[in-house]
């Protein structure tokens, strides 16, 4: 359901999240935490909002072309 770039983002987020959750004494930089949150939101928007909106957009265009 996701392309290779979003897969790379999600894999990096998985690794960073595991480090944050299990890394004893590990500090996460504020910029990294902010990026992790924004990339997570972008993936969720893509999967649950934009994909469906794009499909609806395509369907509307197709309906207009078929008239």
Radius of gyration: 18 Å
Number of domains: 1
β-strand percent reads under 5%
Output mean pLDDT: 90
Task: Give the ordered list of helices and strands.
Answer: HH
Kindly report how far apart the N and C termini lie: 31 Å
Largest sheet: none
Number of helices: 2
Q: Outline the low-pLDDT stretches.
A: none
Give me the count of strands.
0
Helix content: over 70%
Structural class: mainly alpha
Structure, described:
- The chain has one domain.
- 84% of the residues lie in helices and 0% in strands.
- It contains two helices and no strands.
- The relative contact order is 0.12.
- The model has no long low-confidence stretch (mean pLDDT 90).
Write a brief caption for the model:
With 67 residues, this protein is mainly α.
Primary descriptors:
67 residues, mainly alpha
Topology, element by element:
Blueprint: H1 4-22, H2 30-66
Helix pairs in contact: 1-2
């Amino acid at each position: 359901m996701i392309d290779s770039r979003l897969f790379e983002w999600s894999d990096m987020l998985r690794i960073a999240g595991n480090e944050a959750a299990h890394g004893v004494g590990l500090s996460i930089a504020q910029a990294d935490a902010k990026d992790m949150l924004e990339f997570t939101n972008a993936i969720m928007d893509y999967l649950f909002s934009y994909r469906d909106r794009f499909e609806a957009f395509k369907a509307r265009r197709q309906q207009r072309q078929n008239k």
